[in-house]
Amino acid sequence: MNRYVERNGEVFHVLLQEDAGAWLISCQAPAEPFFVAQIEAFNPLEASSLTEALCPHEAESLMSPGQVKRLRLIQLLLGDSRCITDKAYRSALAKETAERNGTTSRRILRLYYRYLATGTLMDERQRKPSENKVYDWAIRTFYFSAKNSPSVRLMK
Burial level of 87, CB count in 10 A (0-12/13-18/19+)? Predict the structure, then answer.
C-alpha cells in the first residue's frame, strides 16, 4: 500500500518502513531515497487522493512503447528492495544495466527515482496553443501551402 507523508509543503512517498525509521523519496523533486529516524516528525497524508495524482502505476498494456522500454530498463532495480537502502549496490546495478543497454547509469537512476516517487516514467507534455494568430495564419498560408512549400522551391 502506498503511504505518503508531508513536511513543509513537500510530499514524500514512504518506500520502506523499518523499526528504526523509514526510507522516503520526494514526490516533487525525485532524487536518491533517504532515511528518516523519526517519521513522526512528518504529517501523514491520506493516500486515496494522492495515489491517483502522484502514483498512478500504469498497467503495461496502457503504456506507450517508450514507457515500456523505460520500465524494462529499471526492472532489475525495482525487483530488489536492497536498491532502496544500499547506494553502492544501486549504483552498481544501474551501471551494469546501462552498459548492457547502451545508455548512462545517470539516466537509469533518474528513471528509477522518478518511478519510485511518482509511479510514472515520463512527464506528460501538453502542447500549448499558439497565442499569435497573425503568425499562425502566415505560417499556414505561406509556408505550408502547396505553391510555396520548401520542397517545391528546391526543385525550381
Answer: exposed
One pLDDT digit (tens) per residue for the chain, 156 residues: 588 999 988 999 999 888 889 999 999 899 999 999 988 888 888 765 555 455 445 555 677 888 889 999 999 999 888 999 999 999 999 999 999 999 999 999 999 999 998 888 877 777 777 788 888 888 777 776 555 555 555 555
Helices (H), 1-86: 47-54, 65-78, 82-85
**8 Å CB contact between 63 and 69:** no
Look up residue 65 and give its amino acid.
Answer: P
**Model's pTM, two decimal places?**
0.71
Q: Where are the alpha helices (DSSP H) in the chain?
A: 47-54, 65-78, 82-85, 87-101, 105-118, 133-138, 150-155
